[in-house]
Amino acid sequence: MIGAGFIGRIHNIAFKLVKGFFAEKTKDVFLKVLAEENEETAKSSALRLGFSEWTGDYRKLLERRDIQLVIIAVPNYKHKEIVLETIEHGKHILCEKPLALNAKDAKEMYDIAEKAGIKHGIGFNYRKAPAVLLIKRWVEKGMFGDIVTFRSAFIQDWGLDKDGPLSWRFQKKLAGSGSLGDLGSHAIDMARFIVGELSEVIGIVSTHIKERPITTGGLGHKHDTSAAKRGKVDVDDICDVLLKFENGAQGSILASRLAPGKKNHFEFEIYGTKAGVFFDWERPNEVLFSTVSTPSDQSGFNRVIVGGFEHPYGESLWPIPGMGIGFAEPFAVQLFEIIDAIINDKEVSPTFYDGWKVNEVLDAIERSIKDKSWSKV
Fold first, then answer.
1. What is the CATH number assigned to the segment(s) 130-320?
2. What CA–CA distance (Å, rounded) separates 38 from 57?
3. Fewer CB under 10 Å: which end of the chain, C or N?
4. Considering the entire predicted model, what is its pTM?
5. Three-class SS of residue 193?
């Protein structure tokens, strides 16, 4: 694994879950080497996370013949360079999202990975939640009829802290965009996964906290920054987008880091000519579902508890519906799938292709904001 920040720690937890849930199928798979920005950070992080080896130079990791899969969990601006070097060394890759800072780079990364014949996955982990896979199955069965509306919001409140550090997430050259790429990319991927490809978009953004302290730290860190010099925030902290889909559906996405009371609130709802559904990640083990065929005196949303053997990995995860899952289990499923794909030469989903397609939508939204008009994807 390259990178041991917040998301790297989640991947580390996910690996331990993989070894627990899929013990027999991963008995010959081991967590081996952690790479960080310097030797001291690498050592302290490796000892904390349970890696047996570490390095302050990720290139030393890539040169090793005993490493087959690399998890890339570094800031967005580093993705392309590290991904391309990893491909050169013939390693399989699980890279965090968004894949790149723009669609051109993402397409290049996808094309080179395909030509090299490696397995490549991207961290759209919410796809693997049992509730999401259940809704996907309902859509494929035609239970919604023609889908007419998709609406999603991914909103958090940690950005409200004006004394939070000016981390890479608040700098365009390092992150590409703010809440749009950080949170909105998940909503865009979900829209594509459930409803289909997008055709046109138009967005508006705003930056309400325009300066932050220049100091170290980021998500999960608390520092006294009251006396620190402040630097400019040049990415959005709120973004609203209207969507048009190729199949005629329409919808909207809200991404924000300034939503008091919302901790990691990812919701989406879908309405079709036959049924509607609502999902809220803060209640990950249930969906609200309604059909037009329900008698009028019983109409409205019904709560459906998901999980159990109906989930593709129900037997390995929690076989009894209602036992529930947490944030790390979808990461574990995604990690297991790419490990299984390497061992048994299977397809992986989502891949760099999906990362590229999401980057295309992000680029189109950025163009629409600049031009103040609808932009084709």
1. 3.30.360.10
2. 7
3. C
4. 0.95
5. helix
